[in-house]
Amino acid sequence: MLGFRGYIFSRTIDSNFIPQRVQNLVVKDYCERCNLFFKLSATEYKMSNSYLMFNSVMKAIKKIDGIIFYSLFMLPENKKDRYKIYDKIILNKKELHFALEEIRLEKRKDIQKIENIYQIKKNSKKL
Predict the structure, then answer these.
(1) Which letter does DSSP use for residue 13 in this model?
(2) Which of 21, 35, 91, 99 gets the most CB atoms within 10 Å of its CB?
(3) Other beta carbons within 10 Å of 120
């Protein structure tokens, strides 16, 4: 078992500031409930649209079972960028989890559910 790398933010998530400590507690609790081996979380830099830490985790994807985001609203806003992530996870036979929403991506069919939730939330903010 290689384990799952947590992934948390230093910046706002969906317009809310969630302390790193709280994000880590949610990710760790999710791992315990899903019986997943948790590896320490990578914490993204505070700069807007920075994904440096995430990209370093993705470069090492073969050394882990997958990544556990605190929330799916940490995904890039650009749809093409999100699909690049989904494709790399699926091609490497890894898993992507979103602890707050309790959603997992491991097969191509899982993408639409994630995208539907993402788009509904983003579109509801425009109202």
Answers:
(1) B
(2) 99
(3) 9
Superfamily of domain 4-124: Resolvase, N-terminal catalytic domain (3.40.50.1390)
Residue pair 33/18 in contact (Cβ under 8 Å)? The answer is no
User: CA–CA separation, 101 vs 86, rounded Å?
Assistant: 17
Separation in Å, CA 104 to CA 32, 68, 115, 127: 15, 9, 12, 28
pLDDT at 127: 64
Supply the DSSP symbol for 38.
E
Query: Can you give the residue ranges of every domain in the chain?
Result: 4-124
Q: Which residues contact 21 (CB under 8 A, 6 or more apart)?
A: none
What pTM was computed for the model?
0.92
Please tell me the distance from the alpha carbon of residue 28 to that of residue 36, in angstroms, as a whole number: 9
| CA-to-CA separations, 52 to 97, 106, 109, in angstroms, rounded | 19, 23, 28
pLDDT tens digits, 45-56: 888 888 999 999
